[in-house]
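step 4 of 6: structure.
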Amino acid sequence: MKTAAILGVTGYTGEELVRLLSRHPEVELVAATSENENGKKLGDLYPPFPRFRDLTICTAEQALQQAVDLVFLCLPAIESSRWGKFFLDRGSRVIDLGADFRFSTASAYEAWYGTSHPFPELLEQAVYGLPEWRRQEIRTARLIGNPGCYPTAALLALLPFVQAGWVAEEPVLVDAKSGVSGAGKTPTKTTHYVEANENVNAYKPGRSHRHVGEIDQELNRHSQKPLQVVFTPHLVPQTRGLYASVYFKLRSAHSRTELNDLLRQRYEAEPFIRIVDPQLPATRMALHSNFCFLAAEAVKDTSYAAVFSAIDNLGKGAAGQAVQNMNLMFGFPETMGLC
Amino acid sequence: MKTAAILGVTGYTGEELVRLLSRHPEVELVAATSENENGKKLGDLYPPFPRFRDLTICTAEQALQQAVDLVFLCLPAIESSRWGKFFLDRGSRVIDLGADFRFSTASAYEAWYGTSHPFPELLEQAVYGLPEWRRQEIRTARLIGNPGCYPTAALLALLPFVQAGWVAEEPVLVDAKSGVSGAGKTPTKTTHYVEANENVNAYKPGRSHRHVGEIDQELNRHSQKPLQVVFTPHLVPQTRGLYASVYFKLRSAHSRTELNDLLRQRYEAEPFIRIVDPQLPATRMALHSNFCFLAAEAVKDTSYAAVFSAIDNLGKGAAGQAVQNMNLMFGFPETMGLC
Amino acid sequence: MKTAAILGVTGYTGEELVRLLSRHPEVELVAATSENENGKKLGDLYPPFPRFRDLTICTAEQALQQAVDLVFLCLPAIESSRWGKFFLDRGSRVIDLGADFRFSTASAYEAWYGTSHPFPELLEQAVYGLPEWRRQEIRTARLIGNPGCYPTAALLALLPFVQAGWVAEEPVLVDAKSGVSGAGKTPTKTTHYVEANENVNAYKPGRSHRHVGEIDQELNRHSQKPLQVVFTPHLVPQTRGLYASVYFKLRSAHSRTELNDLLRQRYEAEPFIRIVDPQLPATRMALHSNFCFLAAEAVKDTSYAAVFSAIDNLGKGAAGQAVQNMNLMFGFPETMGLC
Amino acid sequence: MKTAAILGVTGYTGEELVRLLSRHPEVELVAATSENENGKKLGDLYPPFPRFRDLTICTAEQALQQAVDLVFLCLPAIESSRWGKFFLDRGSRVIDLGADFRFSTASAYEAWYGTSHPFPELLEQAVYGLPEWRRQEIRTARLIGNPGCYPTAALLALLPFVQAGWVAEEPVLVDAKSGVSGAGKTPTKTTHYVEANENVNAYKPGRSHRHVGEIDQELNRHSQKPLQVVFTPHLVPQTRGLYASVYFKLRSAHSRTELNDLLRQRYEAEPFIRIVDPQLPATRMALHSNFCFLAAEAVKDTSYAAVFSAIDNLGKGAAGQAVQNMNLMFGFPETMGLC
């Protein structure tokens, strides 16, 4: 039995981690932190998950006193770096669900997050935790930058085509739609029920959302020529679920069958990827799961391909993927606790 | 006081027409038809609209016995043509909310609807009822093809740039999101609450939806070179509201301000168009109205523009636009009964 | 043309008043106040309502400098009293959409709102603005306490039976369900989309919600013996719409037909009440309208009656009813601007 | 490892059983039937549940050829009886998620379901599968009538007070609210997204819903004097979740604390019941779980108690409870696969 801690247990990703770890047969949650709910029992916050109900929520400072095999960070930017460093120094492995360890270079981090990285030396050992594309490095990593929800959906749809050299030219276009839990738990005008219900709107369009940097970086890791995305996220009236509709120009003509066959070949052995063609993905398929559903379409009378990708933003887009990474790091079966 | 009839009053567009005509000071609804609800009072179907509550629903055959100034057709394809022809021959003006009179040529109709047009000679006199782009012809038309919901949102966003010659090359990309009322009133698996709620999915992607033909036709009417769209509609969990996110390559660089200024200049005098930049449109802004909300963005580090468009699919996307067309045909103030 | 002002135009009832007055042919909005949005144009806040788009939002202090025929108060408790007094002294009529003028006595106000009433002398002239039960007094009133949303739905269902002496004994039971707009515009944990979506919960159950005092007061005004309610409000995942399910013991046996006939007779001439039996009311019927839909049921094998009542909480439950009251006070047709 | 079959796997309860059995470590699904989807793989119907993806859906006739330890029936009334009988005769244990085996007598079944029971002799051995109140009989039962969703929520709230003799008189009042998945998977006007969204309505009010018979029967099993309910179900716009608000007159005065203490004492050892007082239950607490959340309130100034109960209608209200019953019948830990 391995031990784990969650730093920042009161947000939606923290809650989802509690749900998932409650079902995990080989991991024990030994610490869960919150500066505000410090002293309460975990069972008071999350009545439906009885396994860890008697765990007393503590501060991050207190959690650091314990020896834990692995720490999940669900903290604001910079805070993550700080606590990640402390726990690494104590010998714990670290999976950061925020953005502090997703970039390869401190300059990229600074460009997209507007602040210098406090521990640039850690970026070298950090691995971008997308198991379908970095599995070997994740197994031996001590520090994981867990991918953002939008990048996860977009990259899983795009990378097979990028790697195969089928993308003719930039930009690649990603039009994404996310449920409101992606906007976090803090009550704001945007997350007010009356504003979000019966409403769709784009936000941070083009290349203004921070996830653009992350998508660009990972596309270019697998591309032989530079690629950049045009990326527009939209808020849609649902709690969970994220949909990415991806469009790009093909280098040479391919049928719908060929496009989907490429996806099927690339992801054949993947436990959490399903190619649903001739259906199209739907976020409902992925709800409360760690799966990503994909299908591609050749746009007739054009040289364009469209690829559609559906995940649960709190599952494969956050906590589910973090548990998948944990399983790899501990040498457990990759699907343990996730199916 | 002018008289109007609604053929096919039981669907969502028929219901919305009843709501709008209930508030119209210069039009009297004198006939409303349904083959299934024939004999009932309109007030039994739609309790909240008392003005026409005592109107007895009749068959289309019976409606034809009355003299009416204008007929709204909310009927299946081909049925629309048939009844449109009958009423035109009786001297009524006709607004078809279906697709039978949206195409300029019978061959285009046949290409997209898979059946030959029963009255190709009527297509010559039919006017595509997008007032912001065809106002003069609508005023004197006897037969209007009321635009589809997706084409309305997409064309209002695109045409200013197409007309100004700012679009560098095809394809133009339209990623659209619609509420479930756009799928019609017949209960199906797709419209079941449990399937549609907490779900987003693409359908008929690329160039497979019938509205592609309509968008292509109208873009090319105002373009100096051939243009075609890549168009993917998505279903989102809300009753009403349609959002179009439009992307295209610019012929030469333009700032966000320049893009929005072009929209503002083109639509300055339009009563139902609002440029909301520096905000972005949201479908909630347009709910239960005949307005279209627009804003444009220059995608940094690329030569691409993004334009966002929000309408109510039953308002500007169907019944509202039909009443706007009626106002023009009758010489009424264009906003009568719509603000 | 009469003039009106809205004090507190940024909340949901203020917004709904703007929407309704935009369609009113005999009233001009001459002032709209907000301490926070002071200086903006009304059209920037509410783009879809163009009629008053150029009105500049001002402070309550500034609004007081103008002569207005009628003022709508959408303000916090006590604030309402204060500004109501100022405007009454200036000769304006006042409709308070809050609770400050709903109670007949200062002691009742204090009992339910926990603070002493600042102008108890005004309570004598204030009229409880439920037109179906106080029409004559409303016509000549200078000060109206516009009923709460829950009391409106409950009283319209109950009062015919109370007045007819058909209620055998207390308590009368009211189980009510409201959309989230009833919880106001301030972002809170309760109104966060993720908390409210896919959720139903009771709150302030039994006799702990402030609307209990209001319902009790009005029931007893029309009852020959003392009556009190057991009242539990619930929050349901929708923006608008309020449903009250009312249960009481009958003094003597009555069939469903007799129960509904009593409702029909009492409300026969009412423009905004519809008895939908043999259907049951649904909040969707009332959406965006000033109607109340009612139906009654005799519970078989018992001596109990159930009455169901559906309104739009922002329509008949707030702004719609306020406009109905205004129409009565100005001698306009009661339905003007509301159908 | 035990073996199980699901008869009628395509409805919402069948789907939920597949989800739950996918996580069960001691049960293998060996047959899943559907007359319409016969021949497909289970993984094509339900992509997110990979464990049984290769199971080929067969007919009930074919399933009967296999030896299975336990059969879940998700079939229409009467069909359940017929297949239940066949499988019992073959030596399988049977859990019927429909109503055919919920009544103790054939006359009660006929009174509520309007048709005579085909195998009245089976009713004697059938056990009403509410584990918190019939655990010992369930352990040894061969045939279980799994409770309805509304009765589960209502009975768990009421029975402690009924058993303790605290209920003064009938009727007990149950006002319940259910998500749309409770209405089944067949597309109808009621389940159309546009009709169900932004809508609340009562249906089958008073004593006209079939679950009344079931609630009455079980209340009277534990009551010393006859009791009947007034029960009104409502449809609310959410996929899953059921809320029961229960009101009754107390024989003698009790404080809120005393009411909740009775609940706590009665359910202290229950793994799936949580008393959340001083909070109130919310359906969101129970979502995707087998838990029931309860809290009671003493209505001040009256002799009435209110008890609130929240479950997931597909969890504790159907498939979750069925798996709980299966665990008891097989001698497994009661929470296996459910936490």
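step 5 of 6: annotate
 - Chain D is about 35% helix and 20% strand.
 - Chain D has two domains: 2-125, 149-313.
step 6 of 6: archive
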